Amino acid sequence: MESTVYNKLVRDRIPELIESDGNICVTEELPDVRYLEMLDIKLSEELEEYQESKSLDELADLLEVIRAVVKARGWTWEQLEQVRVNKAAQRGGFENKILLHEVIKCV
Question: Nearest 10 degrees: CA dihedral of 67, 68, 74, 78?
Fold first, then answer.
C-alpha cells in the first residue's frame, strides 16, 4: 500500500469519489474554528490557481470557497451582495479600467 498525505480542505464528495476507485480515505470533520482557518487557506490556494490558469473553472472554484466562507461566518449571500452594491454605489466598480499611478498632495 502507498499513502499520499494532503491535509487540505476538499469538496464534500471528494472522499466518496476517491473511495469509488477502491482507495481508502482518512478524513475528519473539522470544528468551526479550524474549518474557518482551513477555508482561509483554501481561499488563497484557489486564488493562486486562478491567477496561474485564468480559467473559468478555477474562478468557479474560488467562488465556491467564497460561498463557504460567507456561510461559515454566519453571513448570507444576500448580505454580501448588499455590501458589494453599497460599495459600488459609493466608490464605483471596476468597469472604467482606471489605474491610479500617483496622488500629489496639494497642501
Answer: 10
